[in-house]
Amino acid sequence: MTTVRIYQPSKTAMQAGRGKTKRWVVEFETDDPLTTESLMGWVESYDMSQELSLSFPSLSEALHFAVVNGFSYTVCNPSKIFMIPKSYALNFTCPRIRGRAV
Q1: What are residue 49's phi and psi, to 5 degrees?
Q2: How are strands ordered across the β-sheet holding 72-76?
């Protein structure tokens, strides 16, 4: 039976917002072992299903896809991220207003 992993991607280091983190991703897991290619030393696999990644707008739709197609699935819940709102103007305010002692 094919196993899929359902998760919400985390924020990348190259973006400031959380634009691509709202969708749910379904990725196929493989039991095929990774082997080292003898000439270049690259890692290779004969299972191409691990190259496939599907995106869904909600968790329920991703679960529905897995159930309808008969896949066993693992759901990885996202961790909560606490973002502190920042403003460029805070760089120029008086330190006493920001709550710091001089």
Answers
A1: -70, -20
A2: 53-56, 24-28, 3-7, 72-76
- Helix, strand and coil percent figures for the chain, each rounded to 5: 25, 25, 50
pLDDT in tens, 49-94: 878 899 999 999 999 999 999 999 999 988 777 777 778 887 777 7
Q: Which of 9, 20, 26 is nearest to 64 (CA)?
A: 26
Taking the model in full, what pTM does it have? Answer: 0.69
- Signed CA dihedral, 5, 7, 10, 14: sign only: positive
Q: Nearest Cα to 81, choosing from 5, 12, 6, 25?
A: 12
Helices (H), 5-90: 59-68
